[in-house]
Amino acid sequence: MISEKMLDSLREDISGKISAKRFFHTAEVEKMAAYLGELYAPELIPELRAAALLHDITKEYPTALQISICRDEGIALEADAVFAPKTLHARTAAALIPKLYPEFATDTVIGCVRWHTTGRDGMTMAEKIIYLADYIDMSRTFSDCVKLREYFNSKDLSKMSDEQKAEHLSRTLVLSYDMTVRGLLDEGRPISRDSIEARNALIRELITKKT
């Protein structure tokens, strides 16, 4: 079990290994993960907070080092991954957690870190929470992040059933993927297959609920 003392120690350790700007974002993601956890998965809050603290531990590594770690850890990189270096840290951070922070190396924590940039088909609730927390935490001031945060907060979840809350989360995630895909199209960059599959899975889920 992940204790408050363990989280405090982890937070202190990570604060000394990443830049002040990156740590500020990390701390805000932890807060957002805890908030979303209260709404959707209270029993997972300790692991969600740990995943939030660990999600960007390799974010500032050079691309060449990211690729080297993937090679050393036996992580296969699809052709498009090399052209989307901003997603590499999800792979490398997840791979290094068992070595650097074994006490936090649960399937939930590692899965959340691994999929926090692209998502995937069949995301767990924990993975959805960390993906969204990373997108809408209060350190995010980009236009799309602000819009997505406002969209998520536009509903009073306290008045919703669990099913309605889950649907709102799915719709928020679909909107996030729409924003991401449009941005990549505008930049002329490749789109992760995992992101496309994640979006399609959410769309199927929403359509199925209507029928």
Structural features:
about 65% helix, 10 helices, globular, mainly alpha, Hypothetical protein af1432, about 210 residues
User: What is the element string, with H for helices and E for strands?
Assistant: HHHHHHHHHH
CATH architecture: Orthogonal Bundle
How many domains comprise the coordinates?
1
User: Measured on Cα atoms, how large is the radius of gyration?
Assistant: 17 Å
What structural class do helix, strand and pairing data support? Answer: mainly alpha
CATH superfamily: Hypothetical protein af1432
- Helix proportion: 55-70%
CATH class: Mainly Alpha
What form results from the Cα inertia axes?
globular
Question: What do these coordinates show?
Answer:
- With 211 residues, the chain is mostly helical.
- The chain has a single domain, classed as Hypothetical protein af1432, CATH 1.10.3210.
- The chain has 10 helices and no strands.
- The chain has helices at 4-15, 20-40, 45-54, 63-72, 88-100, 107-114, 125-136, 143-153, 162-187, 193-210.
- It is globular and about 45 Å long.
- The model has no long low-confidence stretch (mean pLDDT 96).
Concise overview:
By secondary structure, the protein is an all-alpha fold. It is 67% helix and 0% strand. The longest helix has 26 residues, at 162-187.
